[in-house]
Amino acid sequence: MRISHEVLESNSDVESLYIVAIPNGGVPLGRLLVENIESLAQVRPGMGILDTTLYRDDLAIRGTRPRLRKTEMPSTVDDRIVILVEDVVNTGRTIRAAMDALMDFGRPRAVKVVALVDRGHRELPIKIDYVGKNIPTQSGETVVLHVDESPPEMDSGEPLLKVVVRSVGEASGTDEASSVLRRRE
Q: For 2-136, CATH number?
């Protein structure tokens, strides 16, 4: 996974890395990042899962009761290099909410962001440090990621991740990127 190499190249203090995944799509990708870093550096970084729901700036606008997800932060983020993992970044508002939530768990040395897909419609000044694929979309389109979580020994050679861009109301999409990531890169 190219992103794992990039994270290691720009962070020599591997022992300080702490991967924090944003549910739902960021969790399987965060786990894959941890596995790849361990394989490459022989050090297994810690991993947490951070629900951003109560930190969102659109709770009053939505009008419905938000669905809370589990937060699991097994160790402190104090003086750690935190890598926030999100599947698709669009406006940057979820990343902003994640940064606010993260500060409740300590004071990281640095926070960097991984996104497999960047749609590029920023409403806030959020920078993505490690991007799998930039896929410009229209406002009426959504990006759907299909992640293959089968164990490596079951690997059929098919892409681990497929990206599908759909227009509103469209039942099926077309592959904008046939594969962003393969299991053994």
A: 3.40.50.2020
